Amino acid sequence: MPTPQRLPIVNSDDGTWGDILRQYLMKEHTNDDTDNAVNGGHQNITITAGTTSKAPITFTSSSASLLSSPTDGALEFDSSSAFYITTGSTRKKVAIYDDASGATGDTYYRDSGGNFVRLGIGSTGQVLKVASGLPAWGSVSSGFATATKTATTYTITSTDTVIFADATSNNVTITLPAAASFTGYRFYVKRIDSAGNTVTIARSGSDTIDGMTSFTLDVQYTAFAVVSNGSAWYIL
Q1: Residue 141 confidence (pLDDT) above 80
Q2: DSSP-assigned states of every residue in 106-164
Q3: Any bridge partners for residue 57, and if so which?
Q4: By CB distance 3.0 to 4.6 Å, which of 23, 75, 164, 193 could disulfide with 148?
Q5: Are 199 and 172 in contact (CB under 8 A)?
Q6: Rounded Cα gap, residues 172 and 166, in angstroms
Q7: What's the confidence (pLDDT) of residue 2?
């Protein structure tokens, strides 16, 4: 008769207590029948299914439960977040999110507290943009953003597309942003005045513009278009 898969029963298992208890403990505990320090530790863990009143695993909540010296492979819980410690004793937070109101196509991003935040799916035709440092759905622009610049100096930003340079009252220098930070960006500069002052397109830092350090628009209504490849600006 096979040894029962249970704990011994008082007054029912006389003479077989040792065999039953041994089998019960060895199901998940290490034992090589020698005086070995590793014996008794878990060799595997089988977790039975939870119920509506009891979870399979429950961490005791405590603000002091994190290890003072992280140990590789450890799991921790500090009342609000779960952590896993990877090789090198690096504590990594387990990202979790509330999916109670989720929908197909939703996107999740990391907030300032290291948690997942749900961004609901956008509407047809919308594109994912950045607003105040956070992802947000928005409409595709139907045209170019334009701005007229009359000051002596102006540096192009990511919100610019077309710059109208007006040098009626003074020389105007339009400076391109760093090419390394604007890979794939395209900008247009057009001179709209007929004065004798200069309109200069200047580089940022050590960037080049078709190998040059600057470019000049000498004639009214002449235009200039450039694109960055991540290391330099090229005239189109």
Answers
A1: no
A2: -EEEE-TTS-EEEE----TT-EEEEETTEEEEEPPPSS--EEEE-SSEEE--TT-SEEE
A3: none
A4: 164
A5: yes
A6: 7
A7: 79
User: Residue 63 — very low, low, confident or very high, per pLDDT cuts 50/70/90?
Assistant: low
- Rounded CA separation 121/98 (Å): 16
Task: State how far Cα 3 lies from the chain centre.
Answer: 53
Distance, in Å, from the CA atom of 60 to the CA atom of 56, rounded to the nearest integer, reads 13
Q: Which residues contact 12 (CB under 8 A, 6 or more apart)?
A: none
Which secondary-structure segment (H or E) carries 90? strand 90-94
Per the listing, tokens 């008794």 go with: 40
**Nearest alpha carbon to residue 191 among 225, 161, 223:** 223
Per the listing, tokens 């701005």 go with: 147
Residue 171 token pair: 């020389």
Cβ atoms within 10 Å, residue 226: 22
- Kindly give the pairing relationship between strand 162-165 and strand 186-191: parallel
Supply the pTM of this predicted model. Answer: 0.46
- Contact predicate 215/199, CB 8 Å: no
What's the CA gap between 149 and 147, in Å, rounded?
Answer: 6
Contact 168, 180 (CB under 8 A): no
Residue 7 carries which side chain, given as an amino acid letter? L
Distance from C-alpha of 217 to C-alpha of 236, rounded to nearest angstrom? 15
Contact yes or no for 148/131 (Cβ under 8 A):
no
Dist. CA 198–CA 153, nearest whole Å: 12
For residue 137, pLDDT beyond 90: no
Phi, psi of 180 (to 5 degrees): -65, -25
Q: What is the pLDDT of residues 9-48, one digit of tens each?
A: 998 888 898 889 988 888 888 999 999 998 988 888 888 8
